[in-house]
Amino acid sequence: TRSTRPQRLLAAVQKNATRGDPRSVVRAIDQFCRHKEWAMNVGDEKGCILDSVVSEANPTYVLELGTYCGYSTVRIASLLSPNSKLITVEFNPEYAKIARQVIAWAGLQDKINLVEGASGDLIPKMQEMFGVKTFDLVFLDHWKDRYLPDTKLMEKCGLLRKGSILLADNVICPGTPDYLEYIRNSPQYESQYFKSHLEYTKVEDGLEKSVFLG
Ligand SMILES: O=C(NC/C=C/[C@H]1O[C@@H](n2ccc(=O)cc2)[C@H](O)[C@@H]1O)c1cc([N+](=O)[O-])cc(O)c1O
Ligand SMILES: [Mg+2]
Fold first, then answer.
1. pLDDT value for 30
2. How far does residue 15's CA lie from ligand 1's centre (Å)?
3. Does ipTM surpass 0.85 in this model?
4. What's the helix, strand, coil split of the chain in %, to 5?
5. For ligand 1, what atom is nearest to the CA of residue 121?
6. Cα–ligand 2 centroid distance for 163 (angstroms)
């Protein structure tokens, strides 16, 4: 049977990227998506904004919601300091299988915990599963109708501390209107919109960075 797009993306990484070199893995995926097949990675343009937010935050504990093939997982983890950890949540076992191999090719498996399941089920278990108290940075890039309920759930579970940063992809395209309305009007957050483009296209999209004020 025909291969899947994530399988072809992984093959492009294994063909064009250098083992143990995360930035070459990121570059190989961007090349594949720009010249061969579009895929829903945060991409190179929004990826630069992601890089600057991660570098400035220098987080110890990062949560990513929506691994997909591991592009942003590798991009973020490549910027983390030695004792920091990235936990990434993936619902689809096929995507998880590909992402684990992309992460391994980048040589970042020691920094990353990929956990399979639904965010709504796993968020309440983060503290007991990983001994995490709070997350310094959360990257939201999963189902767009889950951004708001999962943010409220993270608040309820005490996973956010004064200064925790939420960074949300696709707030314009495909769009997360209920999340934007909540986060921009809540006195508990200070938000900033970084205007950009939908990955590998000229369509407008952007990232919303929100700091939890506690
Ligand atoms: O739909 C989009 N993203 C949904 C991502 C979903 C990912 O999150 C996982 N998940 C993990 C945990 C869960 O609880 C639920 C899902 C899913 O298994 C999938 O791997 C999207 C679409 C476009 N687009 O242009 O159409 C562009 C983008 O940048 C996007 O991110
Ligand atoms: Mg996205």
1. 98
2. 25
3. yes
4. 45, 25, 30
5. 14
6. 23
32 Cβ below 6 A of ligand 1: no
Catalytic (active site) residue 144: yes
- What mean pLDDT do residues 186-194 have? 98
Which residue has 């919601």 as its token pair?
65
Closest to 29 measured CA to CA, from 18, 46, 17, 19: 17
Q: How far, in Å, CA of 44 to CA of 38, rounded?
A: 13
Closest CA to 51 of 133, 137, 124: 137
What is the pLDDT, as a whole number, of residue 1?
77
The alpha carbon of 49 and the centre of ligand 2 are apart by a number of angstroms equal to 13
**Beta bridge pairs of residue 137:** 62, 165
Q: Can you tell me the distance from the alpha carbon of 182 to that of 101, in angstroms, rounded to the nearest whole number?
A: 36
Q: Is 141 a catalytic residue?
A: yes
Measured between alpha carbons, how far is 87 from 84 in angstroms, rounded to an integer? Answer: 10
Q: Which of 85, 111, 144, 209 is catalytic?
A: 144
Q: 118-143: per-residue pLDDT in tens?
A: 999 999 999 999 999 999 999 999 99
Pairing of strands 112-116, 160-168: unpaired
For tokens 């709504």, the residue is 120
E runs forming strands in 51-176: 61-65, 85-90, 112-116, 135-140, 160-168
